[in-house]
Amino acid sequence: MSAGRIAVIGASAAGLTAAEQLRRSGWDGEIALVGAEPHLPYDRPPLSKQVLSGAWEPDRTGLRAADALDGLDLDLRLGTRATGLDVADRRVLLGADALDCDGVIIATGVAARALPEQSPGAHVLRTLDDALALRAPLAFPGRRLVVVGAGVLGVEVAAVARELGHEVVLVAPEPVPMERAIGAEAGALLAAAHRAHGVELRLGESVAGLVHDEGRTRGVRLAGGEEITGDAVLVAIGSTPSVDWLAGSGLDLADGVGCDEFCAAAPGVYAAGDVARWPHPVLGRPVRVEHRMNATEQGMAAARNLLAELAPERFGERSPFAPVPYFWSDQYRFKVQAFGDLAEPDEVRLRVLDGADPAAPKAAALYRRGSTACGALTIGVPPKPTRALRTLVADPRPWDEAVAALEAVPA
Ligand SMILES: Cc1cc2nc3c(=O)[nH]c(=O)nc-3n(C[C@H](O)[C@H](O)[C@H](O)COP(=O)(O)OP(=O)(O)OC[C@H]3O[C@@H](n4cnc5c(N)ncnc54)[C@H](O)[C@@H]3O)c2cc1C
């Protein structure tokens, strides 16, 4: 085929990796990388960690140096929002402009959910600009931060704010932090750690609304009527896939962009990263993974599979995308790492390796579905034993064998 154009929509982790993979695989046609944000592609995990704490300035979050980006020979369109997709004609609309393409990769990620009536003083945290806006009030000493939500984002921000010496109240309906991600048993260890670090945890409490004063958000009102006030409020209640621009395209947009096992949403149209939902061949159900490692791996897979569809004689066969899901979270001085599928297991086997200091938990856990380990988790455990547990999930062994490996993790 003649080298035409591939458009990658979304210039972040998944989109940039897809563009790089297209070049690495030998695509010598045009690549348009379109991103709504004005910034060069940057990494999000440091936003709730090093950027918020002030340890890093924004330029350290850049995903690639300017000369590496130049080397990709991209038609890089920053500050440009895709507004529509004509699937049959493979035409991407950019407002009044349009790009006719041979292939399209959708990598538009997710947007933070907000509470109704958020006014100045209330924050969300998804973008670099969000992180800098939240960092501003935390730059003054002795502030009080109210965090709504006990997911990864809420607890990471609570940890950073405590380390900066601020008062923190965290409100969430769940009984323990990160319950949905890691389950109740391991979540209880995190609750103890955050309490030991001085976070006031108001778990099992729902927020009914925000409290305003002179046009600013000053706190939250609980379902029972109690008001919790502070100098700033972080609303960390999850996200919504960025698919508005695809309305009317005919794609399956029930939860992100529905794809097949090759990450294809339609002929010549692929999706990757937080926005993509696909039937995971090993997990046996549709998943949409909002984690950093997946953005990279799926960006590469979508790029390879798109090329294989466009020119199989040159780029080979398509392959199903079947990663071992992975995420990490940094809180205080410990790291939480999880592999595989931790959702709704039949059993969780948690081993506390050192319970002496609740502020610095050290634990490992395996999650069983049927007769094998479907997930593994470590908290405050070094890389080598953590990697050993990953193997039990990547190459599932009988449960007894997996439990023996868990027992062998050094205390
Ligand atoms: C604060 C924070 C901390 C995190 N920490 C961790 C962590 O510790 N560990 C971990 O595993 N994961 C973490 N994550 C998750 C991880 O960052 C994401 O999984 C990853 O960024 C997903 O990459 P993506 O490219 O799919 O989507 P995104 O990074 O969301 O990028 C999508 C891009 O598309 C753009 N876009 C949207 N709509 C359009 C449009 N119509 N036209 C053009 N562009 C558009 C957006 O502006 C955005 O720049 C964190 C996320 C956040 C926000």
TrEMBL record:
<dbReference type="InterPro" id="IPR028202">
    <property type="entry name" value="Reductase_C"/>
</dbReference>
<dbReference type="InterPro" id="IPR023753">
    <property type="entry name" value="FAD/NAD-binding_dom"/>
</dbReference>
<dbReference type="InterPro" id="IPR050446">
    <property type="entry name" value="FAD-oxidoreductase/Apoptosis"/>
</dbReference>
<keyword id="KW-0285">Flavoprotein</keyword>
<keyword id="KW-0274">FAD</keyword>
<keyword id="KW-0560">Oxidoreductase</keyword>
<dbReference type="Pfam" id="PF14759">
    <property type="entry name" value="Reductase_C"/>
</dbReference>
<dbReference type="InterPro" id="IPR036188">
    <property type="entry name" value="FAD/NAD-bd_sf"/>
</dbReference>
<feature type="domain" description="Reductase C-terminal">
    <location>
        <begin position="326"/>
        <end position="405"/>
    </location>
</feature>
<dbReference type="Pfam" id="PF07992">
    <property type="entry name" value="Pyr_redox_2"/>
</dbReference>
<feature type="domain" description="FAD/NAD(P)-binding">
    <location>
        <begin position="5"/>
        <end position="299"/>
    </location>
</feature>
<dbReference type="InterPro" id="IPR016156">
    <property type="entry name" value="FAD/NAD-linked_Rdtase_dimer_sf"/>
</dbReference>
<protein>
    <submittedName>
        <fullName>FAD-dependent oxidoreductase</fullName>
    </submittedName>
</protein>
